[in-house]
Amino acid sequence: MPELPQQGTDCHTHLFGPADKFPYVANRAYTPSDAGETEARQLLAELGLERIVLVHASVHGDNRRLFHGLEEFGSTARAVVTLQGTETSAELREWSAKGVAGVRVNNVSTSSLSPQAVAENVLAASRRIANLGWHIQVLLKGADLRAVLERATELPTPLVIDHFGLLSAEDDETRDLLADRLSDGLCWVKLSAAYRLANARETAHALTMRFVAANPEHLLWGSDWPHPPANRSQETRLVAQPFRDVDTKQLFRDFLNSVPSEDTRRRILVENPAALYRF
Questions:
Q1: What CA–CA distance (Å, rounded) separates 51 from 239?
Q2: For residue 18, cis peptide bond before it (omega within 30 degrees of 0)
Q3: What does the alpha-carbon distance between residue 115 and residue 39 come to, in Å, rounded to a whole number?
Q4: Does residue 191 contact residue 211 with C-beta atoms inside 8 Å?
Q5: Rounded to the nearest 10 degrees, what angle do helices 64-73 and 89-98 cross at?
Q6: Tens digits of per-residue pLDDT, 183-233?
């Protein structure tokens, strides 16, 4: 691994379980194995990074797992939470003090709303948190993602796109719109979970180069550790499944190879996260 800048950040990780302490929702799409703070610290050490962003996973209905992680990591962590819609303004301010920096809207794992309804949900969530200095993060693809990007100018908060926008090889329309919005400074893109793309290494390399050319000041890198299970059938969704067999260190090396400039690496790994997550 090449020498890395200090205060580097993995901007997309999850913590799971144990289920007896942090129960999973009944209607979950999958059941993960346990992955906690000890393993996450080991990951950071292996990658040579020092800061971490904990992201809400759909199987945990509330944010208790994230809050526990924030307590354990202290000032080196931030969290992206989910909203239930019943939170008071005082509660949200308390969350901000704990290290919450954003809200996630996930329409890939949890629902099948129309693209227009998805965009309205994103706008509503963004307006709800507009006075907190947080951002809105979305796990969307295809028509859902386009619907949000087309209304990006209406958002009162920064907009962060998960996992390269989950772009498919044939979806030129979404790819071009995402690159345009990024270039205009209307969204941020997480160069995360590259393994979820078709022809993963080649596609991630090409997209990383295009997005760096468009706007390196609005890019983030994330591992998506511990790589949630791919087995999500009705028969197995309530049974703990192993995580995907992903070489996280290789994911990081691939990113570094796609971004040879030390200045650009520093921006993506250190400066951009510090600005967005308020480290």
A1: 32
A2: yes
A3: 37
A4: yes
A5: 40
A6: 999 999 999 999 999 899 999 999 999 999 999 999 999 999 999 988 788
